[in-house]
Amino acid sequence: xxxxxxxxxxxxxxxxxxxxxxxxxxxxxxxxxxxxxxxxxxxxxxxxxxxxxxxxxxxxxxxxxxxxxxxxxxxxxxxxxxxxxxxxxxxxxxxxxxxxxxxxxxxxxxxxxxxxxxxxxxxxxxxxxxxxxxxxxxxxxxxxxxxxxxxxxxxxxxxxxxxxxxxxxxxxxxxxxxxxxxxxxxxxxxxxxxxxxxxxxxxxxxxxxxxxxxxxxxxxxxxxxxxxxxxxxxxxxxxxxxxxxxxxxxxxxxxxxxxxxxxxxxxxxxxxxxxxxxxxxxxxxxxxxxxxxxxxxxxxxxxxxxxxxxxxxxxxxxxxxxxxxxxxxxxxxxxxxxxxxxxxxxxxxxxxxxxxxxxxxxxxxxxxxxxxxxxxxxxxxxxxxxxxxxxxxxxxxxxxxxxxxxxxxxxxxxxxxxxxxxxxxxxxxxxxxxxxxxxxxxxxxxxxxxxxxxxxxxxxxxxxxxxxxxxxxxxxxxxxxxxxxxxxxxxxxxxxxxx
Length: 499
Ligand code: ARG
Prior knowledge:
Elements lengths: L14 H4 L11 H4 L9 H17 L5 H17 L10 H13 L12 H37 L4 E6 L2 E7 H26 L18 H7 L9 H6 L2 H29 L3 E2 L18 H24 L9 H29 L1 E2 L1 H8 L6 H10 L4 H13 L7 H16 L9 H8 L1 H7 L8 H41 L3
Antiparallel strand pairs: 1-2, 3-4
Helix pairs in contact: 3-4, 3-6, 3-8, 3-19, 4-5, 6-7, 6-10, 6-12, 6-19, 7-10, 7-19, 10-11, 10-12, 11-12, 14-15, 14-17, 15-16, 17-18
The structure holds arginine (ARG).
């Protein structure tokens, strides 16, 4: 009942007996069983895998050069006609094989010698997914570029920083945005790592138990631009952990993206950030509205991707070795996740790159809620007051001050609290000048120059380091793209030798 794949090269039958599509035709569950429509995504991958496998079979003398030439010409014709012209089939692998046999006759059936659809589909998924991972990595680079450039422009733009959505300490737009550049940097690294574990060839694993033919697994891997082979034949056919790894990286990315979206939505509401019209929408009834819809949609994508990850993991959980048809339903979760994550990342990159920051609105709130308090406590502690005592003193002044107290009021209340807590004037510890600096949001920011802090010089140093890593990652993505392109050329050359 089941197709266990494996070598059918010994089948000397005519076209009617090798064309598998007729064997189970017409059952009521045929549509349920078929992945042909979804397989459009791996149509090009399957053609490449078929070509590489056929070339290897010929090089190994498993099929004749003339036979390989016929198969390869059949594949060209199938490619030309496109996925839409494929005969009905359980999947793209079967349909392409049938279409080749239709064109070149029963010799087309030799293409499936020394392999199974199990290693074939795994190779196709890896072949396509690696390119998708590079697209996603490139989207993270675009977002990092937008964040780093906008951060550099706004290294001096003082704004309120929040914890628990409460005014916490003054920071800068540059420091805020570079915090996300730091997070997305790790997403790029994770996607590159996922690429590297995806980019190995399962071909030659056959159904799960290898093959009697003298194949050259390293050669098909090389022809397809894979960096190596999945060692164990059963593992080769079974493994989908590379999809989990990639999707998990994307789930992480989109979780961060959703946080960035929320921050920007909040900052738009507070008048700090103004998304460009291209990334906003309006209301059908309220004419004044400019809504940050793109950011809300990008925020929601975390749901799609974590749902995809859950879909993948729950499909894979408990699956025994080696191939089980459940795997067919695992793959689309990964396609959907990578598509929507890459798109959302690009959209947020655009929103960051084109939005405006209102420096005056940011500055107006930068000291709100006595958010300079920590700097005052730090100044007292630097003068020798135990930090806990300084904290108590400043807390007493804060409790006595209205949320919108000006620096003069705060200074008076601090001095009164110093009388209570220390039994002497605040200015025995902190000069009026230093206190004024601590109470000024820009002065407060400038004083926090520790590595990774918000002082403009510290942000400039961080941005320089992050730009260096950006360049490294850009080079890493390009190197992988170049290697894939070179392998494509090599495969075309190898195929042409049989023309
Ligand atoms: N369409 C299948 C999938 O996506 C291809 C492999 C089918 N293999 C099999 N032995 N039935 O997983």
